[in-house]
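If your schedule permits, I should be very grateful for your opinion on a structural question. I would ask you to consider whether the tokens describe a fold that such a sequence might reasonably adopt. Thank you for your consideration; the sequence and its tokens are set out here.
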Amino acid sequence: MTAIRQTIELYSKLVRALVMGLAAVGTLAILTMMGVTCVDVVMRMFGTALRGSADLVRVTGAMAAGCALPYTTAVKGHVAVEFFFQRLGRTGRVLVDTLMRLLGMALFTSFSWCCARLARQYHTPLVEVYDTLPIPKAAVLYLLSFCCGVVVLVTLHNMLHPGREMIKP
């Protein structure tokens, strides 16, 4: 029994570290997006523009949104409609919660697979990059695929530990 408990604890620590690492990447992406936008606005006041700012903001926005998903799931920060859920009995709530978590895991597994498949399509002999910057599109899609996979791991953790969040906000 202790081997199972130790395995679950190791799993929790690993997933928690992944979530916090992705949260840090998402934070850096937001700061980059803000900095690029500010520099671009100031440069436009002087009659020039920052080359590639639109693509860089697009990429960092996708990174920030993707990296925020595991953290938001870990702190149970998603919007929930509790009106009907609270009217169910304990057994009904457990069943509905389990079903919704399984559906969420299936959805994010599908998202992860689709992002990875699309990224592989961008890995042609001629690597596709953004219009003004040499950033490969596949890299962003692989990151989004990874983030969706971590959401699945966090949801599994939440199923193993019902009633409490993985990380305190």
